[in-house]
Amino acid sequence: MSMPRKAALACAALATTGLLASCTSNSTDSGDSGGSTTVSSNDDPGENVVIGFSGPQASHGWMAAINRFAEEAAAQYDDVDLRVAEGTNDPSTQVSHIETFINDRVDAIVLLPTDGAALTQVATQAMEAGIPVINVDREFSDDAAARLTLLGDNYGMGVSAGEYACGLIAEHNLGDDAVIAEIAGIDSLPLTQERSQGFADALATCGQDVDNRVAAEFTVDSGERAASNLLQAAPEIDIIWNHDDDQGVGVKAAFDNAERDEFFFIGGAGSANAMRWIEAGEMEATVIYPATQAGDGIKLARLIAQNRGMSDLVQIEVPRRIVLDAPVVTADNLDQYTPMGFES
């Protein structure tokens, strides 16, 4: 689900929510496109469009935020009629959602696939019917199944965490023998493997590696169990990176129960809890994995359906692939990212 770090950062510079929300006009004349793409201020009113959205079941704070940001983005525009399918984690149910959108002849479809491979065929059918598909977070098995693929950067998330850890080691003179721990998510998932690889690669640049690693399951209970096991195995730790702020509720509980706070605690994803812990001085930082992806997808689906481009680009077409950045949130930039925090 990732591309090389440099390419990801280049794409990300074009695609953050803040950029899309504050675009300035390259041309104030939206005019009559005659079927061709036009460039105007992104938020200028355009042709009325119907966008179908199929998101996940809200069984996880990040998943719930995906759906919320999609609806909030659509609500910003009087020219968007958003039709929301019931959230699901079942591929067959989601296929039926997309088939309904095709039959209804919506102008664009935005979806976070329950399973990219399982949704590829029906997404291709939508594309063949002339309905652009915006694929969020989980790629299809065929690039042609989507007009736009919009992704978070799992490898880059690990890199950001590792680079920040290296900075802490240098700043606090922790030395070559700094003890670094990692609490991963579900190890069988490619996204977890990519995050861990990015973390390891970044640590290697400052001569460090992971001394203690455990895996949880993106849930509060599993986070608490994994963190408790980690603390028992390592009597002294300098830095801990936890992949996921939802499971971080349990991780933090384990820290508190053990009365352990000698380490710098770095989180992942960007929950509201993490933002509050940073503000209170109970957490050093968290690395964003944007829950705003579907909101960005709605904004871009609107432009694509209206035959418009992104006004901050010279290129008049919306790109086919965008990888969002994985910035580190600290006490210094907390105010900027707090509105993006999601409740666990």
TrEMBL record:
* Alphabetical list of InterPro entries matching this protein: Peripla_BP_I (IPR028082), SBP_2_dom (IPR025997)
| Occurrences of domain Periplasmic binding protein (ranges) | 51-306
Kindly state one GO CC term assigned in the UniProt record.
cell envelope
Q: Where in the cell is it found?
A: Cell envelope
Region entry Disordered: which residue ranges?
24-48
Q: Spans of biased composition, class Low complexity?
A: 24-43
Q: Which GO terms describe its molecular function?
A: carbohydrate binding
One Pfam family hit: Peripla_BP_4
Which keywords belong to this entry? Signal
**Primary site of residence:** other
Q: Where is the signal peptide?
A: 1-21
Query: Which protein family is it in?
Result: Belongs to the bacterial solute-binding protein 2 family.
- Name of this chain's protein: Ribose transport system substrate-binding protein
Organism lineage string: Bacteria, Bacillati, Actinomycetota, Actinomycetes, Kitasatosporales
